[in-house]
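Q: Predict the assembly, please.
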Amino acid sequence: MKRNIPLVLMLGLMIGIIGAQNLSAEKITLQLWHHLTASDGEVFNALLDKFNATHTDIQIEYRTMPDEELPTKIAAAIATGDPPDIGFRMMSDITRWYNDGAIVPLDDLMKAARLNLKDFIPDYLATSTYQGKLLMLPMDVSPHAMLINVKHAKEAGLDITKPPTDSASLLKWAKAMTKSNGNQVTRSGLLLTGSGVAPNVLFGILAQEMGAKRISDDLKTVTFLDNDAPKRAAQWVLDAFDKWHVSSRDVSDRYKSFGQGVGSIFFTGPWTLNGYINTNGLEFMTAKNPIVGAKFTSLVDLAGLCIFKQSDEKRTKAAVEAVKWLSDNSMFWVTKGRGVPLRQSILDNAEYKNTGIPWKYRQAFSNSIKGGFSDEIPFPIGGEFSYYASGDMPVAKAMDPVWAGTRSIEDGLAELAKDWQRILDRENEK
Amino acid sequence: MKLGGPIEGKSVVGLSGRLRRLRYKGSLIDWAAYLFVGPYLLLFLSMKLAPIFFGIFVSFTNWSIVRAPKWIGLKNYIRVFTDAWVGQVWTNTMLIALLVVPGTVVVSLLFALYVNRRWLLSNTVRTFVFAPKAVAITVTSMIWVWILDKEKGILNILLSSLGLPKVGWLTSISWVIPSIAAVTVWWGVGYYMVILIAGLQDIPEELVDAAHLDGASDRQVFWNITLPMLRPALILIITLEIIASLRIFGQVQLMTAGGPGGRSATIVSYIYSTGFQRFDLGYAAVLSLLLFLTTMVFSWVRFKIYGDVDY
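A: Predicted assembly structure:
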């Protein structure tokens, strides 16, 4: 018996080691790739860390990549048969990957996981759908609203409890807060840049408010010039520079400029809140977009989680569980991070207003999601129709020369419509 | 493998003997040299040449990385002729090159002459002029965005203090290209200055002394001795800077994103956005080929004007 004790101990040790390995072999480590950085990234990563802390059988290993690199890296990973398990992205990318055969539709999976899809705001769930399939579980929506420099408003004698609600009051505020040196605007009452995202986003919001529609529902025909809304919207933006002199073309960095007090009213998204709240000397307030056109709207960026196809079904099942958990626990993300929740249960939760970034800042964005329009049209080339445009994106290519004063509005809009139609025709030929 | 053993009925020793005796144009082939060059050649063929040929193939296809390329013939090439943006970016790039190339040559030559003559604080000047080249173009661009800002930039504050009007260096259509060109020259001058200093130091002092003895002024020495002797170095700089200017990307992407109104968008930024943001790799390949041909044309023109240069 004594001789057998070491043998028994060794056998017991071996069984223990093998057993432990088996246990750890059941743990699945999922790969999640996202592009969120700065304060957004910190909050999102903290949410992922919370998931890891509360799960022993599934862990998420996350990687952050620059926004402009992520689609390329994912495409390369798909091509080599080794994509991540979960991605955080927009529909234009997700629909493209779906067409490449890399994305798992979520409808049945989420139903099986008992995620209540009726809890989501229907319009945004519809925007997460392509060819009748739910491809993205939206995590947040980032509408545009006004940030207003309170110090400038008070100096100008404006009532900060009654922010602008229409074109007339917007202009009144902008003019009151503008500072000029002769004809040169030295502090923009309405902060724009001479080209790029700022004027194009404002143009888009106004055009949509005035009744413009970019393309037909069958995604085949450009309908942008079917009425004069784009022309009136473009004229409004141009007038801000040249007629009312409330905007300067000489602003190169709009975010820095608002933070430094070089601009008074800034149309932007909730991703700026964390940074500006922590900016010394900046006192600001937020307000819904004024109604310059026929009805209220806001330009909205929608992003969410998608699941990539894997050969191992266990990984897909684990990914579904992870995605559901992240969605169910997204209160943390939408109160401390950026964006507005798309789940009614969160919007109705009393905690929603009392947690995270102060409600006085978040309220305007939260109130802007109903009536908002998705900037990206949800199909593979949807990004080409975005108003959030700079560089050689179609809206920027066509309209930046208009803002610069080197092309007429008519020529700019004609060029834009033609470019969009060419893009649609090429896509439909595929 | 056994030496002397059969390989497909032939002797290894016999084969190696035949290889050793092979001649090319009357001279024995030095196989050892090829063995030394072999690894690099393999890398060159696989990493440089093969991608070029693959790029040519891709230019005839519709390809977005994930799925197999789909042959579409000349459609991408035809598209170039209907794409107005191609003309815009080519014009912008040529304008930048027209400013950067002579600017770099002249400024680097001036600094090289100053340093070579060991004038006041020449060592310090050499260090300060070379220093920007040690900084990445991304950092350089971000610093200059701040310096050139219209309201808060140091340059405009200085202009303002001298009673001069502020200038939208990066936001004005008239000034954006000269501003980008100036930043590019500032960043690149140090590297070429060093090349020119080496060239100046290669000029035999006896020639200069002899010229002075014959009564030549400094200016005459410069135009008739220094510049001609610097010809190889200058041609090298011109060639390198033309190629670099055609490929300009980082400073445009970070300083202006191609604005205002597309007036600073360049060829490479368009290739980048077409290939890596739109995943329209076929069209991006055509644009890349066009850039390659443009570079070849410039090289050919340089060759025709300056002939073969012995470096």
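Residues 1-7 of chain B have pLDDT under 50 and may be disordered. Chain B touches chain A through 38 residues (CB under 8 Å).
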